[in-house]
Write a structure and sequence with these properties.
- The protein is an alpha/beta fold.
- 34% of the residues lie in helices and 15% in strands.
- The chain contains twelve helices and 14 strands.
- It has helices spanning 4-14, 69-79, 91-102, 115-130, 184-194, 217-229, 249-254, 280-283, 302-318, 321-342, 388-400, 422-436, and strands spanning 36-40, 43-46, 51-54, 108-112, 134-139, 176-180, 198-203, 233-237, 260-264, 274-278, 359-364, 367-372, 404-405, 414-415.
- Strands 4-10-9-8-7-5-6 form a seven-stranded mixed β-sheet, sandwiched between helices.
- Helix 3 (91-102) packs parallel to helix 9, helix 10 (321-342) runs parallel beside helix 12 (422-436) and helix 11 (388-400) crosses helix 12.
- It is globular, with a radius of gyration of 21 Å.
- The protein starts with a helix and ends with a helix.
Length: 439
């Protein structure tokens, strides 16, 4: 019998944990992961033909939903042109020209295959440009699985007993400095001690891997000012937020121009693409023009380049972002009403039920995150309410059973696409009520 349970048991025999990225294993929420076979628009279908309305959207890149006709047309055309070259081609040029023409702080860009690869390469550029070794990151920001930044990380490690990975020697992270988000005193103290030793300050300008931890503009501006004062390069990791919260990303929203920026996910319209970019004087350090070596046989794959350009040109022309914000607010407002009607009696990890428990949504653009209502905004990992993981797991499975698919972790955010119209959202809300009412 071909079902998710059977496939998962088979997968565990040939792959670590039965998956190829940890969060897919459902470890955070419990149960058996769903194996999907098809996607279109806002819908997913599993191997048993059950239908789900998707609010994970492959963790963000599908701004226009799964297999949008305009983008699918370009993908089909690409199959008749080439699958890969391993050589110079025009498609990456067209995408690079489009991005550099429309984003002022991107003077040059290098395409790679993932966000992890992009950040790894950008750090190398930063060290070369400054002649320094140390990197500053923030607890709760995730920058991929490279050794030097997998320290107190979020994403797939969120919620486990330790955020560090085994197999990383102390010497590999000895030059990584970590402080909390939204702590200006810690920020100032660290720069006074280490400012002249820091090559790169790396941050998600919209931290979205350990909950949606929206930062104060004042904190982000102080970070930018201190970086410039001490000669550190400011790296914005916009793998999630770039082209998703607005066409120019969080750098535009904050009014802060980074020295270097990393993109991924959305840049290839769902195909494996990443990029690091920034001011020409730094990017010109990259080989073959400069001494910083980085290469990739499959970098600038024609599928990602052509599909990405089709999607970004569409987004630039149509500006779907205001409507996405409206639909996100509609969905989250109504979901919170349902959660507060049916799901306020879920116990925390100690089995206790809070009599005054209420849910709330944190949203920015088309990103959202459901959590316990708190008196103050949650901007750092330490302020995430206790028991969040356990409560979310109950909600996740109640929705999953009735065909609403969220990311399988209480620390991952949700997304809407342009295909999530009112009809789809109301259908999802009806399914959610049916599931939540049985809690």
């Amino acid at each position: 019998m071909t079902n998710s349970l059977n496939l998962f048991e088979r997968s565990k025999k040939v792959s670590p944990g039965g998956v190829h990225s940890p969060v897919r294993s459902f470890t955070s929420v419990g149960g058996t992961p769903v194996f999907f076979k098809k996607a279109e628009g806002t819908k997913l279908w599993d191997v048993e033909n059950n239908e789900y309305i998707d609010f994970c959207l492959s963790f963000g890149p599908l701004l226009y939903g799964h297999r949008h006709p305009d983008i699918a047309k370009v993908v089909r055309e690409t199959t008749e042109l080439a699958w890969t070259f391993g050589a110079a081609e025009p498609y990456s040029l067209y995408l690079a020209e489009f991005i550099t023409e429309n984003i002022p702080w991107v003077e040059k860009i290098r395409f790679v295959n993932s966000g992890t690869e992009a950040v790894m390469s950008a750090l190398r550029v930063g060290r070369a440009a400054t002649g320094r070794n140390k990197i500053l990151k923030f607890d709760g920001c995730y920058h991929g699985h490279l050794d030097s930044l997998l320290v107190k990380a979020g994403s797939g490690l969120a919620g486990e007993s330790s955020s560090d990975s085994a197999g990383i020697g102390s010497e590999q992270i000895s030059n990584t400095l970590v402080i909390p988000l939204d702590d200006e005193i810690a920020l100032e103290d660290l720069f006074e001690r280490e400012g002249t030793n820091i090559a790169v300050v790396a941050i998600e300008p919209l931290p979205a891997n350990y909950g949606l931890l929206i930062q104060r503009k004042e904190f982000m501006q102080k970070l930018a000012n201190l970086s410039r004062k001490f000669g550190c390069l400011l790296l914005f990791d916009e793998v999630i937020s770039g082209f998703r919260v607005s066409f120019k990303g969080m750098a535009w929203e904050l009014g802060i121009e980074p020295d270097l920026v990393c993109y991924g996910k959305i840049l290839g319209a769902g195909f494996p693409v990443g990029a690091y970019a920034g001011k020409a004087k730094y990017m010109d350090l990259v080989a073959p023009q400069g001494p910083v070596y980085q290469a990739g046989t499959l970098s600038a794959n024609p599928f990602g380049m052509r599909a990405g350009l089709a999607m970004l040109e569409k987004a630039f022309k149509e500006n779907p972002y205001p409507i996405l914000e409206e639909t996100t607010n509609y969905f989250t407002t109504n979901m919170i009403n349902l959660l507060n009607k049916y799901a306020t009696k879920i116990p925390d990890k100690e089995g206790k039920i809070k009599s005054d428990f209420q849910w709330e949504a944190v949203a920015y653009g088309s990103l959202f995150w459901f959590k316990e209502k708190t008196e103050h905004s949650v901007r750092s990992v330490s302020n995430i309410p206790l028991g969040h993981k356990e409560r979310f797991a109950k909600v996740f499975h109640a929705l999953l059973k009735h065909g609403v698919y969220l990311a399988p972790s209480g620390y991952e955010v949700g997304f809407l696409s342009t295909e999530h119209n009112m009809q789809i959202l109301n259908e999802a809300l009806n399914r959610a009520e049916e599931g939540l009412s049985k809690l």
